[in-house]
Structures are given as structure tokens and as C-alpha cells.
Amino acid sequence: MSLLDVRDLTVAYGRQVAVKGVSFTVERGEVVAVVGESGSGKTTTANAITGLHPASSGEILLNGVDIAGWSQRRLRSIRGHRIGLVPQDPSNSLNPVMKIGRQIGEILKIHNYGDRAGIRRRVIELLTRVGLDDPERRAGQYPHELSGGMRQRVLIAIAIALRPGLIIADEPTSALDVTVQRRILDLIDDLRNEYGTAVLLVTHDLGVAAARADRLVVMKDGLIEESGGVREVLAAPASPYTRRLFQDAPALTARPFKPFDAAAEPAIVVRDLVKEFGSFRAVDGVSFEVRRGTTHALVGESGSGKTTTARIVTRFTKATSGEVVIGGDPVGPRDFRRRVQLVYQNPYGSLDPRQTVAAIVEEPLRNFRLGDRTARRARVRELLERVALSETLLGRRPAELSGGQRQRVAIARALAVEPEVVVLDEAVSALDVTVQAQILTLLEELQRDLGLTYLFISHDLAVVRQISHTVSVMSKGRIVESGTTRQIFDSPQEDYTRELLAAVAEPVR
Amino acid sequence: MKWLSWAVIALVVLWAAMPSLFTGYDPLAGVPAEKLQGPSAAHLFGTDAVGRDLFARVVHGSVHSLSGALVAVAVGLVLGTLLGLIAGSVRGVVDEIVMRIMDVLLSVPGLLLALTVIILLGPGTVHVAIAVGVGSVASFARLARAEVVRVRRTDYVEAAFGSGGTFAGVLRRHVLPNSLGPVIALSALQFGVAILAISTLGFLGYGAEPPTPEWGLLIAEGRNYLATSWWLTTLPGAVVVAVVLAAGRISKEIR
């Protein structure tokens, strides 16, 4: 008998059927990863198992008992006790006005674990177990006093408090930096070995799934596309969709490094950049050069100063000291905007919701008075074609477009004034892998055809490896190491770079 | 019940536009023989002390109340939004000065402020409307500023500057349109409030001169007959209440 046996599960939101007959099993002590793109129904499936969203039909057998039709009242007796849940976003999942110790104690109290002293002892034990230093002090702290990684450890402590047989982890590390992510996944692995807990890992990150799971369940549009042992599925994916997905995932497919030509003249020169916010130095003496027609990546974890550097390069933030030279000569503020463009991370926020696609792409042309009305119209059509968007979208508003389409519109807007330099601030981080792959290909094509120079800001080393010619690794406002992409990935010199690389999936290391 | 509030407003607007469609009586000339009659089929709202048909007076009076409210809202909307836009987009010292003046305006009771303005301008329907409008400038300015500050921080506004947009151009094309939603909702609410305020000032005798059939004035005139002829105060009052409630309801819907 399997620990969890899901049979023909269907879940609907009103008339919208999100999960359409899904069956899979989880054995004791096993890690099963449910992967898929956004909207594939993976989170809905997880929510149906814990009863957070009722199943429309099908069976959910936990230790052979069907819990699909149980009332919330009955489900409460198994939540936490039999099934532990690790939620996605550690910053929103803890009560901000309740001390850590009490939040962990709460689950013990609900399930009548013991008296107050016993609960207190167990809380300290759990905090120690999930690797928090000075557990006595941590128990008395509030969530805002902890970092994201520490909060996720607290959530894991809550999930394992009653030693459930099954932990459902919904994107447990997506909001965390790569090195923290690795430590959290290691912790989950350790706990599994120690307690024999099975883990249902819901993730969009194929690298994580490949590295951590025993079995894979690939979902698409509410159906299971393919499932089986990780090694088998990775080695020989049966369905064309899975094959595409794996090909598109930068973390699973190593592409050859881009050849770097040091002879080209520099398009961006950054010298001794410093930015202070009060007494805090966000950027601390950063210098690098980017050759014309190449891509330079700034990689680092959150708080490393990479976005601040990008904002100084695009002149949205003033540097405290240091200089940025574009194309070898100083440029005036207005001319500057024609030569340097920025593409944002979030295509949902960077397009005016009230404008049509045509108006958005035309705006830079109007601002710089490039051509008359008809000439501008023609140019807008040309730009849309350039980013592979259909003309039928001209009259749509951003809300009527998908994430990938929106990012294409944002790129078209950036290209409208024929800039020399495009700064891409996490421009593909918010996109699903297949869409991400398409946008990356588009960026490569545009660079080749138009001779663009990219400054590519990212936390994702796998993507960086694929697109960039040169890399600078940033940490705490400084550049710790820089070189060609091949040098950084094949022979890293600094410990910090090695640590970052260790967090990336095997094939691209 | 959504349609009801729209229907009430539509009816009152029609009264103002084509009063003769709704009543055949003259609002100013009375028939002394028919004075102080209660509501009946012939006189829907009854008649007043000099025998004028009250319904006709309410219908013909709607134009005064509505146009007054419109002027009041326009004054508040235009001045308030402009001040809020400037304060929220320029920030710094200008923001501080403008918003502290608004705080002072907010701290004075609305009626007192309106009376002060009327005393400065002199009585009259237009002056009353302006006075009421001035009283609402502060709330419009505060709301508009909050919205502008929110929109100013979005990526698309920064992207617009990044596309070479000028300060005024970006304000006009992106910040203003995206900030206006809640402001429009507030102006619908203020429309109701303004009708009430204008009626109040009319009641106190600062607005239209008798025998103009202004709503507040109608209620004031009926006051002397409160004990004997309830309809003179109650029915115009009910009309005012219905319009104010409908405007509030519509405002909620827009928001």
C-alpha cells in the first residue's frame, strides 16, 4: 500500500477545471517532484491533497484511507499530524505579530502534544534540528528579525513538528537565493533520511527537481504529461512536451560557451562606481567593461548591488562617485535615452495598463519626434514583427496579453529608438521555461542582427551561462570575480563563485 | 438595485433639462384658492401657502440644485486634482506646503468654510456653488496626491521617462489617467454631498432668493407650516435624500 495514492483527481474553480483526472502515488520515504509551467495545475493538485481546495471527484488515499470527501473538521486532525505543509513564500507565511517559538508551539498545542514545558522543549529541539543558531533566542524573536532562509527553516520546523509521514512542499525555495536554496533543500533531504518522511515537491524549477527527486510527475494543462523515475525521464523523455521542456530549461541542457572577442571596442565602461544609501554602501567600487556587440552578465544574490549598478548605468539612480561611459564619449541626458534602454523584470508592471500595444511601442518614437504619423505606424508594425508578435495584437491592452507577449512588447519598446545598449534587469526571471527560452533566443537574434550590447542582470547562473560572453560575480556591493563565461564556469578562482556554482544543477556546472 | 440609483439621477437630470414634460403647473404663479392642499392626483406633492404646485416647484428647482452641484464638483475636482498632481509628482518642499494648506482647510468645518467664502464673495447661487466646491478641494487634493504618489513609483512611469518622455508629457500621458479612477468615484460622492450642502445654504438663506424654487429654500419655506402641512418639508426633503443616496451608491459602484 502506497503512502499517498491519488486516483483520477479532478479539481475545478467554478466552471474552470484546473486538474483533469490526475493519478500518481508517493511511496514512504520517497521524493516525488511535480513539475510544470504556471497554470499547469500543480499547486492546485497539492492544495486538493491537503483539502485546502476541495476535489471535485476522484480519490485521495492516505495510508489506504480516502480523504477526498472529508469535512474540514476531520481534515484538521491529519493536517500537520499526517501531512506537513511547507508553503512557498516565507515572508508571508508567518504571523508577523507572533513570536517564532509560539508559532511552532501552536501546531503542537492543537494536536495535544503535551504540557507547556514539553512543548517548549520540543520547540527548541525543532529549531536546533532545522539548523537555526541560538534556538533559545530565536524562539523569542519575531519573523521580521529573521532572514528569508531562516523563516523557511521555521516553516519547515512547523511542518516536521509532529513527524508527519508526508511533507508537501510547494515551491519551497523559489523565493530564496541560490546558496540559501541549496541549504534548505539539503535540510529537507536530511530530514527525509532521518525520519523516512516522504516529500511531494511542487516546483517550476527543473534543475531542483532533477537534483532532488526520486520520481518526476510532469504536468501540463491539468493533465499528467509523463511520470516515472527521474533518471529514466531525464534520459529518455517519452512525450514531446517533456522533451521540449527539458531542452528549454537552461539548467538541464549545457550549450557551448559563446566565443568572446576581446578586440571589439568597449561600449560600456564603468569605473569605481560607489553608491551610498545613508551610511550603507550598496555599490562599493565596481568597475567593468562591456565590448560592443557582446553580453555582460552581473550575477549575484539579493542585496549584492547588481540592480543598483544597473540603475546607475541607465541613469535612474545617481552614483555617489565613479563614472559610467557609454560608447566612449559623454552624452547629454536626452541623447542618452536614445542610446541606452532598460527592460524590466516584471512585464506586468512595466507597461501602462491603459495604453494599447501600438501606443506603448510608439511612445518613444513620439517622444523623440521620429517620423510623422504614418512613418511611426509603419515602424511600430516593423518592431512587432521583429519581436515575433502578430499585428492583431496592436489594439490589445497589456492585461489581454500573456507574460511572454508582454515582455516582447517591452523589448519592442526598448528597440524603437535603435539603442546601442540594452540593460536587462532580470528580464526573463519571471517567465516560464519555454517562454524564457523563446525570449532568450529572441535576444540573441536581435544582438546578432542589430549589433546590440547587453548588460544582463540575473541571479540565475544557468541562464547567464547560456546568454553571456563575459560575467562579473557580485557580492555585498563588490565584484568578487570577473572574466569570460568559460573562465567563470570552468575554473572559478574565488570561493564565493564556487559556492554559487555548486548550487546550480549538474549539467551546466 | 444598481439601476435604481442611476434611474433616480437620470430622472432628476430630465427634470432639469425638460421640466415642462413632467408638470404643467407654473412654479412661480400660485392659485390662492388652492393653498395648502395635501398631496392628491391633481397636485402630486400638494400646494404651498400661496397655492403653488409643490411638485412643479421641485421639478423646476432641480436645475438650480444640479447645476450648483456640478459647479461645486467641478471646482473641487479641477483645483484639487491639479494641486494633488503637483504635490505628488514634484514632492519636496512644494508637496509639504500644498498639503499643509490642505490640512488647514480640512481642519475647518465644511459649513463654516463655505459661509466664510460666501461672506467674501457675497450671496447668490453661483457663489454658493463655488463656496461648496472650495470646501471639497482638500479631499480631492489628498486623494489625487496619494494616487499620483502610487503611480509615480510604478515601473511603467519610469519606463516612460526611459523612453525619453518629458516630465509634463509623462504626467499627462501616464500618471494622470492612471490616478483618476478613485478621483472620479469621489466626485460622484461629492456630487451628492454638494447637493446637500447647497440645500443647507439655501435653507439658511445664503443661496437663491425667493421665489426661486431651490430645494433648500423650498424646505426652509415649508418650515413655518411644519405642524399643519407636513408635505411642504417632507417631500422636497425626500427628493434631496434620494438624490444624495443615489450619488453615493453610484460612487461606490465606480470605485
Strand content of chain A: 15-25%
Largest sheet of chain A: 6 strands, mixed
- Greatest chain-chain interface? A-B, 23 and 17 residues
The largest sheet of chain B is: none
Tally of discrete structural domains of chain A: 2
Compute the separation of the termini of chain B in Å. 17 Å
Helix content of chain B: over 70%
The largest sheet of chain A has its strands arranged as: 6-7-8-3-9-10
CATH superfamily of the largest domain in chain A: P-loop containing nucleotide triphosphate hydrolases
Structural class of chain B: mainly alpha
CATH uppermost class of chain B: Mainly Alpha
Give your account of this protein's structure:
The complex is a heterodimer of chains A (509) and B (255). Chain A is an alpha/beta fold and 509 residues long. In chain A, 37% of the residues lie in helices and 25% in strands. Chain A is built from 19 helices and 19 strands. A six-stranded mixed beta sheet of chain A has the order 6-7-8-3-9-10, with helices on both faces. In chain A, helix 3 (100-110) packs across helix 4, helix 6 runs parallel beside helix 7 and helix 13 (357-367) runs parallel beside helix 15 (403-415). Chain B has one domain: MetI-like fold, CATH 1.10.3720. In chain B, helix 2 (54-90) runs antiparallel to helix 3. The radius of gyration of chain B is 22 Å and the shape is elongated. The two termini of chain B are 17 Å apart. Chain B has helices at 2-17, 54-90, 92-107, 110-121, 125-152, 155-162, 167-204, 215-222, 231-254. Chain B has nine helices and no strands. The chains are: A alpha/beta (509), B mainly alpha (255). Chain A binds chain B through residues 314, 316, 334, 337-338, 341-342, 344, 346, 349-354, 363-364, 367-368, 410, 413, 416-417, and chain B through 154-156, 158-166, 169, 173-174, 177-178.
